[in-house]
């Protein structure tokens, strides 16, 4: 009888452990390190040589659209024998193995190896030339993987504690939702226009949401978008002094890419903003997304003002917010997007 009870007890404990295992975050440490930090596990010879150079050229290249040079990631090289617990909980990790003893070369992406929410990449190669080949063939994927991980960590922080006033206004009056952290205030609200902002003594983060009719794909070009944006900023986003107002800095080219977001045709733009008739300015990132069922373009323009401070992480925070944009009628758009794809295939 005692043996049976003991067996039942062991099965009960096993069931509990198995149930805990279904929650991928339960048994993990929290990640450590600052936003944008990345550990590269690599020998000193490789770091000082060609493999390290190609890693730095890609992952520590200047972040696009900032007023001063800041790297995409802050890289910390760690020799293999020093890669202990203190480093293993870092948020972003690249492990390298460059040796003739490597049996199978390749690259592997793995989430949450030692901590949560962690992004890790393992690259194995028989020699430096093979490492460089593998890295270059996958560098866009590597960049995208780590940048997306940084975005998701931002939105996780306020997944359930977002600013309800902003969320509800967008949901009710604009037919979209977006999650921003508590502390964002509604600064101006007009038909098809909303400006929300967070202010502290040292920084400002703001988002402007607006829409305009979709007439053709030209509605996503820089030449079409900038005049509309600047006219709305001039009208509704004043500067600190009389006659001053926000606008796009046009002395530098805008960085523009056509993308998809939530399955919808979209474009992203990066650059600098300025205040006309004043001296304020900073970086911005914008998302323009097609709402095909309502024949409109929804725009989210996020900006940062942080004089004498690094701006990369602040801009990434705003970027994560605007990319949380979701259209309430997305199911209708999915059907129309699918029809468009089928027509293109048939054509």
Key traits:
Protein Transport Mog1p, Chain A, 8-stranded antiparallel sheet, 2 domains, alpha+beta, Chitobiase, domain 2, 5-stranded mixed sheet, single chain, 347 residues
Structurally, how many domains make up the residues? Answer: 2
Query: With helices defined by DSSP (H or I, 4 residues minimum), what is the helix count?
Result: 9
Helices and strands: which structural class?
Answer: alpha+beta
Low-confidence stretches: 1-26
The major β-sheet equals: 8 strands, antiparallel
CATH class of the largest domain: Alpha Beta
Spell out the CATH superfamily of the largest domain. Mog1/PsbP, alpha/beta/alpha sandwich
Specify the helix fraction band. 25-40%
Mean pLDDT: 91
Task: Note the run of SSEs as H and E.
Answer: HEEHHEHEEEEHHEEEEHEEEEEHEH
Characterise this structure.
The chain has helices at residues 2-21, 44-48, 50-59, 85-88, 128-156, 164-174, 222-236, 312-322, 330-346, and strands at residues 29-30, 37-41, 74-78, 92-98, 106-111, 115-116, 119-125, 176-177, 185-190, 193-199, 204-213, 245-248, 255-261, 264-276, 281-291, 296-305, 326-327. By secondary structure, it is of the alpha+beta class. The protein folds into two domains: 22-156, Chitobiase, domain 2; 164-346, 3-Layer(aba) Sandwich (Protein Transport Mog1p, Chain A), CATH 3.40.1000. Strands 9, 10, 11, 12, 13, 14, 15 and 16 form an eight-stranded antiparallel β-sheet that branches. Strands 3-2-4-7-5 form a five-stranded mixed β-sheet. β15 and β16 (296-305) form a beta hairpin. The model is unreliable at 1-26 (pLDDT under 50).
């Amino acid at each position: 009888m005692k043996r049976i009870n003991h067996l039942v007890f062991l099965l009960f404990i096993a069931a509990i452990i198995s149930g805990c295992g279904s929650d991928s975050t339960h048994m993990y440490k929290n990640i450590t390190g600052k936003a944008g930090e990345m550990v590269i596990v690599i020998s000193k010879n490789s770091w000082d040589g060609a493999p390290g150079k190609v890693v730095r050229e890609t992952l520590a290249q200047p972040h696009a659209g900032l007023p001063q040079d800041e790297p995409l990631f802050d890289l910390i090289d760690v020799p293999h024998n020093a890669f202990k617990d203190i480093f293993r909980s870092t948020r972003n990790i690249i492990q390298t193995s460059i040796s003739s003893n490597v049996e199978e070369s390749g690259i592997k992406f793995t989430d949450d190896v030692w901590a949560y929410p962690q992004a890790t990449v393992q690259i194995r190669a028989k020699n430096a030339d093979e490492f460089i080949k593998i890295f270059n063939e996958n560098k866009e994927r590597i960049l995208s993987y780590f940048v997306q991980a940084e975005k998701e960590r931002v939105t996780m922080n306020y997944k359930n504690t977002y600013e309800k006033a902003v969320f509800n206004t967008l949901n009710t009056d604009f037919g979209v939702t977006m999650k921003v952290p508590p502390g964002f205030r509604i600064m101006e609200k007009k038909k098809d226009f909303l400006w929300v902002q967070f202010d502290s003594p040292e920084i400002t983060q703001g988002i402007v949401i607006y829409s305009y009719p979709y007439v053709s794909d030209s509605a996503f070009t820089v030449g079409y978008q900038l005049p509309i944006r600047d006219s709305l900023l001039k009208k509704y986003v004043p500067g600190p002094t009389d006659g001053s107002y926000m606008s796009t800095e046009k002395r530098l080219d805008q960085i523009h890419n056509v993308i998809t977001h939530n399955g919808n045709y979209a474009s992203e733009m990066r650059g600098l903003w300025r205040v006309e008739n004043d001296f304020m300015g900073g970086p911005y990132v914008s998302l323009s997304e097609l709402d095909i069922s309502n024949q409109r373009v929804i725009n989210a323009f996020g900006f940062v003002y942080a004089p004498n401070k690094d701006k990369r992480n602040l801009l990434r925070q705003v970027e994560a917010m605007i990319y949380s944009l979701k259209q309430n009628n997305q199911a209708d758009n999915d059907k129309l997007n699918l029809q468009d794809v089928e027509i293109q295939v048939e054509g």
